[in-house]
Amino acid sequence: MGQRVKDLRESRGLTLQALSDRSGLAISTISKVERGLMAPTYDRFSNLARGLGVDVSELFSTQGGAFEHGTIGVARDTDFGYLETENYTYEMLFPDVRGKTMVPMRGTLKPLEKMRFDRMVSHPGEEFLMVLAGRVVVQLEGAEDVVLDQGDSMYFDSGRGHLYAAEGAEEARILVVCSGLGDDGAETPAA
Known about the structure:
GO molecular function: DNA binding; DNA-binding transcription factor activity
Helix content: 10-25%
Strand content: 25-35%
Number of helices: 4
Shape: globular
Protein name: XRE family transcriptional regulator
Radius of gyration: 16 Å
Order of helices and strands: HHHHEEEEEEEEEEE
CATH superfamily of the largest domain: Jelly Rolls
Pfam family, one: Cupin_2
Oligomer: single chain
Number of strands: 11
CATH topology of the largest domain: Jelly Rolls
Domain HTH cro/C1-type: 5-59
CATH class of the largest domain: Mainly Beta
Number of domains: 2
Organism: Primorskyibacter flagellatus
């Protein structure tokens, strides 16, 4: 993803400072992402996409086109864009489809004891989470932890700080769908 971010930034004639101003991310964060020293979390890569003026899927794939109403997309089990961070793996579904109003992803979570967080994640929009395998603990800013078993799901305002982790010693698999809503309530691509 780092090289892709750098290529998109340079093709738009943006400096690190300009992208920092547009994305709200520190120059050092963007530089680390571009050099492959940091794998960004969802909120950071969606801010990068917004700052670059691209759909979040463009960070995962160089190919693709706009979603056209009335069309149908099929994703096979192995069709996804992949990003591994310190705490999560992201499997971006439909990475070649631009302009989606929902961002569907699968992921693998490490046990909470093995994860390191410097902050909770928050971003505009709403979020749906379903546990595909294992048990998941969801920590939400200002609320008690929620433990979800396989097949359980939850829906929440993703502007509230949150993080997910596997409950217990085993990894967990999840399906997450994010929608992006700007401050004015309008749908924003890739948020």
